[in-house]
Design brief:
CATH topology of the largest domain: UDP-N-acetylmuramoyl-L-alanine:D-glutamate ligase
Number of domains: 3
Strand order of the largest sheet: 9-10-8-11-12-13-14-15-16
Structural class: alpha/beta
Strand content: 15-25%
Shape: globular
Number of helices: 16
Distance between the termini: 45 Å
CATH architecture of the largest domain: 3-Layer(aba) Sandwich
Largest sheet: 9 strands, mixed
C-alpha cells in the first residue's frame, strides 16, 4: 500500500479506532498471522474451522495494526480498528484503493485457463508497459482486495484474475476491480456443485462486465461453444471481440505446429499476421496466447512486439520435464476439471513421441451429483486417442477405468491404491522416449508421484 495510514483505513472501512496511533503508516495487508511483517495491517478472517481473531495478539508482535470484529478494546498497545465484518471491510479497502488509481485494468476469468491466460496477458503487456498482476492465487473475495491494495503508482496497467465459486460473487469482484477490459476463457463445470448448471456458470462469469467502465471491451473465447453464442444473450451489452483458433474470430491462430516442448503458429487480426513461438504445448494454450496478443493489440501494443516474450514463457500450471536418457513428464498436477483434463490429454496426444504415451489420472473434485458421469466422460474421451496406457488413482477415477475396460479399446489400464505404489510401477515400466501425463485435482497430491519420478 502506498501512503496509507491507520486513519485512512478507519475512513475507508467506517470503523472505530479502539486504541493506538492513527498516524501509523501501513505498507501491506496480511491475513496469515505466520506471514505478517512490520508495517502490515492484519485482517483476521472468520473461517469455517478457525476464527483468526485468536491470532491478533501474536500477529501484532510483528505487524503494525489490526482489524477486528470481536474486540471492544485493544489487547496490545497497537492500533485496533473495530469493524462489523472484516471481509467486507477488506473489500472496502480494496475498492477505495482501486478508486484512487486510474490505471487501466484487464480482468480475467473463466472456468479453466484463467491463470495461464492472465500470465500470458501479463507477458504480452510487459513487452511495452510496466504491468501489475495478480500473484499466486489471490483471485477470490478475499484475495482480490489484497491484490488491489498492492497496486503501485509506478504501474501503467494491471491484469487481475477473478475467481468465483458461488452465484453473486462476480458482481462483487467486478465492483471492486471496475475493469476497462475483461477476458472470459471457458465455461466448464468447475464449481458446478455450487452453481448447478453451465448456463448459470456462464451467466455468472459474464457478470465480470457488470461494473466495466464505459467504452470497455470484452474478449470471449470463440472456441468455447457457450461463449461463442454469448453475444446473442442479454448478458453481453458491450463491445465484444472473439479470439481462438477459428478464422471467423477477430483474432485467431493458424498454421499451428507442435514440437517437442514448444508450439509455433501464426496469429491473424484483419490483414495483420504475426508468427509466434510459444514455449508450451496444447491447442488451449495457443488460444490463451491469442487472447494475450489481442489484449495487447487493443491496448496499442503491436502484436509482433507483444509476441517477443513467448518463446521464454513459463506458466505456473503445466510443466513439461524432459529427463535425459529417460522419459518426459507432463506435470499438470495443480488442479483438474473435465475441461482441463481433456485439454491435458490433448497435449499428451499432440506431443511428438517415439515411445509410449501414458496418462496417470486421478479424481476431479467439486463436480456435484454428476461427478461419476464426468469421470466416465473422460473415459469415453480417451477411447479414440493415441494413448497406450492409463493409470488411475482414487475412487472416482475408477469410472474412467470401467469405461475403457468395457470398450474394445487397446488402451491398457491399471489402478493402484496410493501414489507411491503408482510411482514405483511407473519407474519400473517407463522407458526412454515415453511421455507420461500426470493430472488430477490438487487434493489428490499427485505432485508426490512427480517428485518420486524426479528423485530417481
Amino acid at each position: 500500500m502506498e501512503n496509507i495510514t491507520v486513519r485512512d483505513i478507519v475512513e475507508m472501512t467506517g470503523g472505530v479506532l479502539l486504541c493506538g496511533d492513527a498516524s501509523t503508516p501501513l505498507t501491506d495487508i496480511c491475513i496469515n498471522s505466520k506471514e505478517i511483517k512490520e508495517g502490515d495491517l492484519f485482517v483476521p478472517i472468520i473461517g469455517e474451522r478457525v476464527d483468526a481473531h485468536r491470532f491478533v495478539e501474536s500477529a501484532l508482535e510483528k505487524g503494525a495494526a489490526t482489524l477486528t470484529s470481536e474486540h471492544s478494546e485493544g489487547v496490545v498497545d497497537k492500533p485496533h480498528i473495530y469493524v462489523n465484518d472484516t471481509v467486507k471491510a477488506l473489500q472496502r479497502i480494496g475498492k477505495e484503493i482501486r478508486n484512487r488509481n486510474s490505471m487501466p485494468v484487464v480482468a480475467v476469468t473463466g472456468s479453466v485457463g484463467k491463470t495461464t491466460t492472465r500470465e500470458m496477458i501479463t507477458k504480452a503487456l510487459s513487452s511495452a508497459r510496466r504491468t501489475f498482476h495478480t500473484e499466486k492465487n489471490l483471485n477470490s473475495q478475499i484475495g482480490v482486495p489484497i491484490t488491489l491494495s498492492r497496486m503501485s503508482s509506478e504501474d501503467e496497467i494491471a491484469v487481475l484474475e477473478l475467481g468465483i465459486s458461488e452465484v453473486g460473487q462476480m458482481e462483487v469482484l467486478s465492483d471492486l476491480v471496475k475493469p476497462d477490459m475483461a477476458v472470459v476463457t471457458t465455461i466448464g463445470v468447475a464449481h458446478i456443485e455450487f452453481m448447478k448448471t453451465q448456463d448459470t456458470i456462464r451467466r455468472e462469469k459474464l457478470r465480470v462486465i457488470s461494473s466495466m467502465k464505459e467504452g470497455g471491451t470484452l474478449f470471449l473465447n470463440g472456441d468455447d461453444a457457450l461463449l461463442k453464442s454469448a453475444k446473442t444473450t442479454e448478458d453481453v451489452n458491450c463491445r465484444t471481440l472473439f479470439y481462438g483458433t477459428s478464422d471467423w474470430c477477430d483474432y485467431y491462430a493458424k498454421d499451428i505446429v507442435y514440437h517437442d516442448t514448444y508450439t509455433t503458429f501464426t496469429c491473424v487480426h484483419g490483414t495483420k499476421e504475426v508468427k509466434v513461438h510459444l514455449n508450451t504445448l496444447g491447442r488451449h494454450n495457443v488460444g490463451n496466447c491469442v487472447a494475450a496478443l489481442a489484449v495487447a493489440c487493443e491496448n496499442g501494443i503491436p502484436m509482433e512486439v507483444a509476441a517477443t516474450g513467448f518463446d521464454e514463457f513459463e506458466g505456473q500450471r503445466q510443466h513439461i520435464i524432459p529427463l535425459e536418457n529417460k522419459f518426459t513428464i507432463i506435470d499438470d498436477t495443480y488442479n483438474a476439471s473435465p475441461d482441463s483434463m481433456k485439454a491435458s490429454i490433448n497435449v499428451l496426444c499432440d506431443m511428438p513421441c517415439q515411445g509410449r504415451r501414458v496418462a496417470v489420472l486421478g479424481d476431479m473434485y467439486e463436480l456435484g451429483v454428476n461427478e461419476a458421469e464426468y469421470h466416465r466422460e473422460i473415459g469415453s474421451f480417451l477411447l479414440d486417442k493415441p494413448i497406450d496406457e492409463v493409470v488411475v488413482l482414487g475412487t472416482l477415477s475408477q469410472n474412467i477405468k470401467q469405461v475403457i475396460e468395457a470398450s474394445d479399446s487397446k488402451i491398457k489400464v491399471y489402478t493402484f491404491s496410493d501414489n507411491e505404489e503408482a510411482a514405483i510401477y511407473l519407474m519400473a515400466t517407463l522407458r526412454p522416449e515415453d511421455v507420461v501425463l500426470i493430472k488430477a485435482s490438487n487434493g489428490m497430491n499427485l505432485k508426490e508421484v512427480v517428485n518420486i519420478l524426479l528423485s530417481e
